Amino acid sequence: MPANPQESAPGVPSPGPAPWARQIAALLGFLAVSWVVATLGSVPIILNSNGWYALAEKAPWTPPGWLFRSAWTALYAAMAVAAWLVWRQRAFPRRDALKVYAVLIVLNLAWPMTFFGMYPMMGTAALWLALLIITAHAATATVTVLRFGPISTSAGLLMLPYVSWLVFSASLNVYAALNN
Question: By the number of CB atoms within 10 A of the CB, which of 74, 87, 94, 144 ranks highest?
Answer without folding.
Answer: 144
